Amino acid sequence: MSDWFDADGPVESVNIGDRGFQYGDGLFETIAIRDGQPRLWNYHMDRMTLGCERLALARPAEADLRAGVTSALQRSGFCKDACVVKLVVTAGGGARGYGRAPVDEPSVYFGVSAATLPGKESWRDGIETLLCATRLAAPSATAGLKTLNRLEQVLARSELAGTGIFEGLTMDAEGEVICGTMSNLFVVHDGKLRTPSLARCGVEGVMRRHVITSLAEQGIRTDIRSITLADMNNSDEIFICNSQFGMLPVRRCMDRLWPVGRVTREIMAVLADSGIAECRW
Amino acid sequence: MSDWFDADGPVESVNIGDRGFQYGDGLFETIAIRDGQPRLWNYHMDRMTLGCERLALARPAEADLRAGVTSALQRSGFCKDACVVKLVVTAGGGARGYGRAPVDEPSVYFGVSAATLPGKESWRDGIETLLCATRLAAPSATAGLKTLNRLEQVLARSELAGTGIFEGLTMDAEGEVICGTMSNLFVVHDGKLRTPSLARCGVEGVMRRHVITSLAEQGIRTDIRSITLADMNNSDEIFICNSQFGMLPVRRCMDRLWPVGRVTREIMAVLADSGIAECRW
Predict the structure, then answer these.
(1) Which chain A residues are within 8 Å of B244, Cβ to Cβ?
(2) Separation between Cα atoms, residue B99 and residue A206, nearest integer Å
(3) Distance between CA atoms of B269 and B246, rounded to whole angstroms?
(4) HEC profile for A191-217?
(5) Backbone torsions φ then ψ of A204, nearest 5 degrees
(6) Which among A149, A140, A113, A110 is positioned nearest to A27, based on CA atoms?
(7) Which residues of chain B make contact with A12, given a CB cutoff of 8 A?
(8) Which residue of B has its CA nearest to A167?
């Protein structure tokens, strides 16, 4: 469970009229806290800024968000541990009905919870995935963003219940693999790295951006374009990434098995060197 | 603004961990109250039942929902007026993360607010619409349902701000007209009635079902299939419907003007006879 705070202190509830509750009219970021500091903060801020623009919310001042994270960590007593802060920004209260004016003062909440990371063997041996029956609709008006409208992920992720499988991969209607329910996907084919375009649906994860950027600094290019299921199954190695666990090799999706390959290991080393300590397995 | 209640009495807030707030993991119905009674109650229950099945929520007992509506109306003091009850059913609290087990006891809330109906001239002269730039993504895992994930409607409806235009019509990516932001659409062409299929996206409104059913009882068939923008613009008459206003002729969408035609008038008379008093203009 999480402890929740706003700028003033602990909160247990939100107004029932909050548009976040009524319509999912808002955004969130799930920020890894390591050594008391938010990781990839600038990337989280960039995505929040983009989301606020698209939803016509004034982006809360970065200093206020940062102070809110620090205060929530201190109050929760989690500040010295590896943990997670979920930053939620909503359109707040307002009249009934879908339409609204741009919001000058969005509501902001900070939820702190313990990190829930898989066992060490996951980085060594890779994790198992399944292909979700739930498809992502496209083109989504909120493609790339992390909004409070997450029913597709709820339905897709619920398909994993009782299986022990770590992650579900989701496709769009055309059979293109888009992302995991809580992660982004990369495939390696003939030594080349590819990750799905998220222009039509899916969430542009901060760790995905960090992988692409860190590799680019090493002169390694990531090709961003559509990946069909056949493309994925024909690939030599695949891995997933997210803000919490960094990256993890995928050793299985349905009947297809992959080795934890050389390129995946090299990229894990690059990520570890860039400060994503989980990848130093 | 709305007054909110649960089964026990007034509520002002919901737990911040409620999955309705965190993920939009829930459903709602917007029920017209006329002469103190919910209108088209059975159709609202049918859609709620279908939605609960699709989201793996136990459907709250119908008697409890009906009692909750009655209680909310009495407590709010709205019971003798035309008003609206928004019935919200969510997956309630739960652990962090998208996935969840089926929910045996969803949270249920009842919001009561005054009816907000357009002026009488709207039924006589028709209303204006615009074509929203916001498109509906498809195929949606929640097509037809009225879930708490409503950002597409928020974005589409916000396009109307300041225009004085009554409704926005939304298309999918292929240019098929699906529905209004808060209504369903019918077109009349060569005397034949059509309404868009909602198999891929859009909300199956209770008044849409009531129109189709009431006309079928009169021997009038509604063709349910895709309607392109060209189809709509080539049609002779168009109208929209929803649970609150019944049906309204559309006299304009962008540059296209329509008369309030004979078929539309006849259907309004059928609806009025079926108990949708607003249609007796």
Answers:
(1) none
(2) 21
(3) 11
(4) CEEEECCCCCCCECCHHHHHHHHHHHH
(5) -85, 95
(6) A149
(7) 15-16
(8) B99
Domains within chain B, CATH numbers bracketed:
3-114 (3.30.470.10), 121-279 (3.20.10.10)
* Residues B23, A153: C-beta atoms closer than 8 Å: yes
According to DSSP, the residues that pair with B250 across neighbouring strands are B127
- Are A200 and A172 a contacting pair, CB within 8 Å? yes
Residues B121 and B110: their CA atoms lie apart, in Å, by: 31
Q: What are phi and psi of B174, to 5 degrees?
A: -85, 5
pLDDT tens per residue, chain B (281 residues)?
789 999 999 999 999 999 999 999 999 999 999 999 999 999 999 999 999 999 999 999 999 999 999 999 999 987 667 899 999 999 999 767 999 999 999 999 999 999 989 999 999 999 999 999 999 999 999 999 999 999 999 999 999 999 999 999 999 999 999 999 999 999 999 999 999 999 999 999 999 999 999 999 999 999 999 999 999 999 999 999 999 999 999 999 999 999 999 999 999 999 999 999 999 97
Tokens of A77: 């007593």
Provide the β-strand partners of residue B33.
B38, B83
* Residue B277 DSSP SS3: helix
Residue in chain B closest to A19 (alpha carbons) equals B21
Contacts of B157 in chain A (CB under 8 A): 97-100
- Which of A88, A151, A183, A200 to mutate to probe the B interface, most B CBs <10 Å? A151
Among candidates A137, A149, A181 on the partner chain, residue whose Cβ is nearest the Cβ of B98 = A181
Residues 6+ apart with CB under 8 A from B18: A21, B90, B91, B92, B93, B107
Contact between chains at B148 and A21 (C-beta distance less than 8 A): yes
Buried b (16+ CB within 10 A) or exposed e, B6-41: beeeebebbbbbbbbbbbbbbbbbbbbbeeeebbbb
A212's tokens: 């692409």
A260's CB contacts (< 8 A; 6+ apart) are A124, A125, A126, A237, A249, A251
Question: What would the two tokens of residue A195 be?
Answer: 């990750």
* ipTM value for the complex: 0.97
Residues of A in contact with B95 (CB under 8 A): 1
DSSP percent split of chain B into helix, strand, coil, nearest 5: 30, 30, 40
Alpha helices in chain B (DSSP H): 19-23, 41-55, 62-76, 121-125, 151-158, 206-217, 229-234, 262-273
- Token readout for A239 is 């891995």
The torsion angle over the Cα atoms of residues A131, A133, A134 and A136, rounded to 10 degrees, is 60
Tell if the CB–CB gap between B16 and A19 is shorter than 8 Å. no
The pTM assigned to this predicted structure is 0.97
A260 φ, ψ (degrees, to nearest 5): -85, 105
For residue A185, the surrounding DSSP H or E stretch is strand A184-189
